[in-house]
Design brief:
By secondary structure, the chain is an alpha/beta fold. The protein is built from 16 helices and eight strands. Helix 2 packs antiparallel against helix 3 and helix 5 packs parallel to helix 9.
């Protein structure tokens, strides 16, 4: 079983809820067996529960649910690491705070008696979910389109292999597929007179058993991105995007949050930036900051500020992509990129209104000239302020080619069309996870 086509994060949320339910029930069982009261343990219960779920999220015990094949040994390793990390965290916190002896839950024997059965429960939950337990049967995804359109659509799914792959069938054969089924019918097929009666018949069927949609809508819903190759021209005007709504509370909230959080982060991370700047200078005695022209809102250029992570280059050097293992990256720069510390000076751009905390990543104008010619709808990513992080940054790898840029654009277009405060919060959480795991590049 792969992630559900209905809501790719539904199974992950269900798994977290089941973990929480198991923790609570097992704790009550341990307290009953030992004859202990839980009345004075609430603070440490909350700390342990949050720590277990948080470390499970950071260490990928939920991520494995999205893998095409579930490795039992990998799952056991990650759950075991989550158990050990949680036990160590509570032990260190107990040593630092030294609570009274009435708090029996912090003792090592109590923690092991509670968390070891919880880990076994978590293992059973994940294996059960992967085998289809506690879920309705997933519908078959069928693609009904001309060959050229079908190949474009299937190529989009191949770039996101963790999702359920649709099958390409002729409309006559697709209509005979047993329920439940989702038929992604191309608009070009819908307009053909010979298929009109067949489609009308399909639309009369129970929508819970036979769901009609389009390849573009299916890709947007399941892949959570909008492949530019599947888009018609024209598509989505500036007036239609949620961010452009007049007197939009979400738009105003976004700007207020940008300024307040940016100022807070500047104050909190100032020592980190100073230490990083000193290390950059010590390595090669070069400049600490790197100022570069980028394209911003509605294509207007601005100067972005970063900590320098590459060797000092000639001002006449040609503009090129940054590739994996690029020898221009310094030793200090390697770690600054992995932790995203090199991006912190851009908080000044956020306060100035040139950037947002969340949005499409700003690109260099010299590279964009080629990208706009090669990728349809590319300029639409300028319809929102560029961001330090964004849906493309947390979902796709670093762009080092036109193909990579097209993949990232598909996520930017999804964010543009589906902008909301909740999506920004999700991106923020995934950004924090990337930073804590030192998974930047």
């Amino acid at each position: 079983m792969k992630l559900s086509w209905r809501n790719p994060r539904r199974i992950l949320l269900l798994c977290a809820v089941l973990d929480l339910l198991g923790m609570v029930l097992i704790l009550f069982g341990v307290a009953t067996i030992w004859g202990k009261s839980l009345s004075s343990q609430s603070t440490w219960i909350g700390i342990t529960v949050i720590a277990y779920l948080l470390f499970g999220w950071l260490l990928g015990t939920y991520t494995v649910l999205g893998w095409p094949r579930l490795s039992r040994w990998t799952l056991i390793q990650r759950l075991g690491l989550c158990l050990v990390t949680t036990l160590m965290f509570v032990a260190i916190l107990r040593w630092a705070i030294n609570p009274s002896l009435e708090i029996w839950l912090v003792f090592r024997s109590s923690q092991v008696s509670w968390l070891f059965p919880t880990t076994l429960w978590s293992l059973m939950v994940r294996v059960g979910l992967r085998r289809g337990a506690l879920q309705a049967e997933e519908p078959k995804l069928i693609l009904v389109a001309p060959e050229e359109e079908a190949l474009k659509a299937l190529q989009a799914w191949n770039l996101t292999p963790r999702r359920i792959m649709p099958r390409w069938l002729p409309s006559e054969v697709a209509s005979l597929e047993p329920s439940p089924v989702v038929l992604a019918v191309s608009p070009s097929v819908r307009h053909e007179p010979k298929y009109r009666l067949l489609l009308e018949e399909l639309e009369l069927r129970d929508p819970r058993e036979c769901n009609l949609t389009t390849p573009l809508a299916l890709a947007e819903r399941q892949l959570e991105r909008i492949p530019p190759a599947l888009l018609p021209d024209p598509w989505l005007s500036y007036a239609e995007i949620p961010w452009n709504a007049l007197f939009s509370p979400q738009r105003q909230l976004k700007r207020v949050a940008d300024v307040l959080l940016a100022l807070l982060l500047l104050a909190v991370t100032a020592p980190v930036v100073l230490i990083a700047a000193f290390l950059i200078w010590m390595e090669d005695r070069g400049s600490v900051f790197y100022v570069q022209e980028r394209s911003g809102w509605l294509g207007q250029s601005f100067k972005v500020l970063k900590l320098r992570t590459m060797k000092v280059a000639s001002p006449y050097a040609p503009v090129t992509w940054t590739l994996p293992g690029d020898d221009r990256i310094t030793r200090v720069g390697h770690w600054l990129r992995r932790t995203r510390i090199d991006e912190l000076p851009q908080l000044i751009n956020v306060v100035a209104g040139e950037m947002s905390l969340i949005g499409p990543r700003p690109e260099r104008p010299e590279l964009e000239l080629q990208l706009e010619v090669s990728i349809p709808h590319y300029r639409k990513r300028h319809w929102m302020r560029p961001g330090l992080s964004g849906w493309a940054q947390v979902c796709a790898p670093y762009a080092s080619s036109i193909e990579d840029s097209e993949l990232k654009l598909s996520y930017d277009l999804y964010y543009l069309k589906n902008f909301s405060t909740w999506l920004d919060l999700l991106i923020l959480l995934r950004t924090i996870k990337t930073i804590l795991k030192v998974a930047g590049r």
